[in-house]
Design brief:
single chain, about 500 residues, alpha+beta, 4-stranded antiparallel sheet, about 45% helix
């Protein structure tokens, strides 16, 4: 170790003497290159090994050795140093841009200033180029140099039920004893009370529907809910048009009940529920451990008792004793309000298409009068569907777009088990294919898995008969796809003819 230290010190002294002699400024990479080239010339390192250390090929190492022998340390310095880049903005152009921005666009951001320079003055530059010019001139302050924003606390609302903050907190609530899940938290802003707690797999519209329904039945309708900018509460794209008109399903349901939904711009704006999440991650987790709770059903049964005890100990009195909750009206059916609702155009043949399923409205004299009108399709979490038009529910039946009815084979008792195994195996393959689709929601995939779990375990029957069965199954699949594509083209043609 001592010999290595002496050798490194001697080498450093040589490099320092060479730099002082040639008066050359070198980067760290170029110093490393100098050390390796000296070792190559001293025959302590091969050129192939030097190429592995430096990066270039062995021929380039040879060129570097020749340059070092010819020009000394300066031969290893990049020739680009000190040269003006070919793409550098000319000084007169930068001065012109800075003068224009100072005179006309001093309070503009780089993006808007770049647009105005191109539209009005014909100066076409990149946004980053304009930003750097403004930073060098002291007009624009870069983000890393700005002072952090101060999020000062705001006063609580005066009345109980005036503002309820809601949020979903994903956490390991069971500490590995159960599934990793999400807790939906409802906190009153005026009193800090825990209004509703519900454990769910993940944040979804149907889970918020169920939680809000329980809340409304218990306390009534608050004035407003305060949430983050999750897609459940707010459509991300501004100015969205279409059947929903830029309103989420949860926002539509609250609008039907005359309840406002406010989305916070930052997490600090709804800090009361954010701090409550942190408190629950400490207190609730430990309470669940003491109670031996290890799944979501048991946790949801324990949550009301925990919330009641927490409110008794930590809730505070509101500034105004008035309760801002409003009672539910008799005509407000929460079951229909908190359902997934979308508008569809019923064809003149009394056909409604919704989520890749075709529904045939039963033809009658009254139904024929509704042909071609818009209908509203309601869907619930369990998959149940209803079609409403003009304030009434329409009777319908589901039409199978992919009919696959085949004549059953004559099977003896000895082959019955094998045939049933083939059917179950093919059904499992079909479910696995559907689960791989990106068009299905998580809830629809869970329903498919639940149906599959009810069946007994399936094994691959194998054999020549099963191979023939799979081949026939593949042919039927192609036939179904062909029929489905023809029907889809026919529907598109009917739609185009109807619009024209």
């Amino acid at each position: 170790r001592g010999q290595a230290h002496v050798a490194l010190k001697r080498l450093a002294d040589e490099v320092e003497a060479a730099l002082a002699k040639d008066l050359v400024f070198m980067s760290g990479e170029e110093v490393d290159r100098l050390v390796v080239i000296q070792r190559v010339l001293e025959r302590k390192v091969t050129r192939v090994r030097a190429a592995e250390l430096l990066g270039p090929c062995a021929r380039q190492v040879t060129r570097l050795c020749e340059a070092y022998q010819r020009d000394g340390v300066g031969g290893l310095v990049s020739k680009k140093r000190g040269c003006v880049g070919s793409r550098k903005l000319p000084q007169e152009v930068e001065a012109c841009v800075v003068d224009l921005v100072r005179e006309l666009y001093v309070d503009f951001g780089p993006t808007l200033a770049r647009e105005k320079l191109e539209e009005i003055h014909g100066i076409r530059l990149a946004k980053e180029t304009v930003r750097k010019c403004m930073v060098r001139a002291g007009i624009w302050l870069p983000k890393e140099s700005r002072l952090p924003k101060a999020h000062q606390p705001r006063h609580r609302r005066h009345c109980f039920g005036e503002l309820v903050q809601i949020d979903g907190c994903q956490h390991d609530w069971f500490e590995g004893r159960g599934p990793y899940c999400t807790l939906l938290v409802y906190v009153d802003d005026a009193t800090g009370q825990l209004m509703e707690l519900r454990f769910v797999r993940s944040e979804s519209a149907f889970d918020y529907f169920d939680s809000t329904t329980t809340y409304l039945k218990k306390f009534g309708k608050p004035v407003a809910f305060y949430s983050d900018k999750h897609s459940i509460f707010r459509v991300a794209k501004e100015g969205t048009t279409g059947p929903a008109m830029g309103i989420s399903q949860f926002g539509r349901a609250l609008a039907d009940l005359n309840i406002d939904i406010i989305c916070a711009n930052t997490p600090q704006a709804k800090g009361r529920v954010e701090r409550m999440n942190k408190t629950l991650q400490d207190r609730l987790v430990k309470e669940l451990r003491l109670q031996g709770v290890s799944d979501m059903d048991e946790a949801n049964a324990f949550a009301p008792a925990f919330a009641k005890d927490y409110n008794r100990r930590f809730a505070r009195e509101p500034l105004n004793p008035h309760d801002a909750h409003r009672p539910l009206r008799s005509q407000e059916d929460l079951g229909h309000v908190f359902s997934w609702q979308e508008e569809r155009q019923m064809t003149r043949n009394l056909v409604v298409n919704f989520k890749r399923v075709t529904y045939l409205v039963e033809p009658s004299r009254d139904m024929r009068r509704l042909a071609g009108k818009k209908v509203r399709v309601h869907q619930w979490a369990d998959g149940r569907v209803e079609i409403h038009c003009a304030g009434r529910s329409l009777p319908f039946s589901v039409f199978d777009n992919n009919p696959c009815v085949t004549q059953g084979d004559i099977v003896g008792n000895k082959r019955l088990g094998h045939v049933l195994s083939m059917i179950q195996y093919a059904r499992k393959k079909r479910d696995d294919l559907r689960l791989a689709s990106k068009k299905l929601t998580m809830r629809e995939k869970e329903q498919i898995r639940d149906r599959g779990d009810q069946a007994r375990p399936v094994v691959n029957p194998g054999g020549a008969a099963f191979a023939a069965y799979l081949e026939n199954f593949a042919k039927e699949q192609k036939k179904r796809d062909r029929v489905y594509n023809q029907a889809a083209r026919h529907r598109r043609r009917e739609k185009e003819l109807g619009t024209t």
